[in-house]
UniProtKB/TrEMBL annotation:
<dbReference type="Pfam" id="PF04945">
    <property type="entry name" value="YHS"/>
</dbReference>
<dbReference type="InterPro" id="IPR007029">
    <property type="entry name" value="YHS_dom"/>
</dbReference>
<dbReference type="InterPro" id="IPR011017">
    <property type="entry name" value="TRASH_dom"/>
</dbReference>
<protein>
    <recommendedName>
        <fullName>TRASH domain-containing protein</fullName>
    </recommendedName>
</protein>
<feature type="domain" description="TRASH">
    <location>
        <begin position="52"/>
        <end position="89"/>
    </location>
</feature>
Length: 96
């Protein structure tokens, strides 16, 4: 075999090796799925805004004060709003 053919064969084997190796490892779609699984949510989504039923302020859910009552979770912007809700001074409006 001539040296040119050996070089061409070597290049073709290298390209084939890289392609097979790329198929064996996780592709970009699988990487995104793994990130989603680890984080528990889609990448890029930081948090969801929730509305306080007393003062109607929008707050990130992870920063909200939570109250579990009658099987429903209520989110509040502060302890004061939560206390007002518990005392019955404010009622949530479902029509908003």
């Amino acid at each position: 075999m001539s040296p040119v053919r050996l070089v061409i064969l070597a290049i073709l084997f290298y390209i084939g090796y890289r392609m097979l190796r790329g198929l064996g490892s996780s592709g970009s779609g699988q990487v995104e799925e793994e990130k989603k699984d680890r984080a528990g949510k889609e990448p890029g989504v930081q948090d969801v805004l929730v509305e306080d039923p007393v003062c109607h302020t929008l707050i990130p859910r992870h920063q909200a004060v939570r109250l579990r009552q009658q099987g429903k979770t209520w989110y509040f912007c502060s302890e004061d709003c939560c206390d007002r809700f518990i005392e019955g001074g404010e009622t949530p409006r479902d029509d908003v």
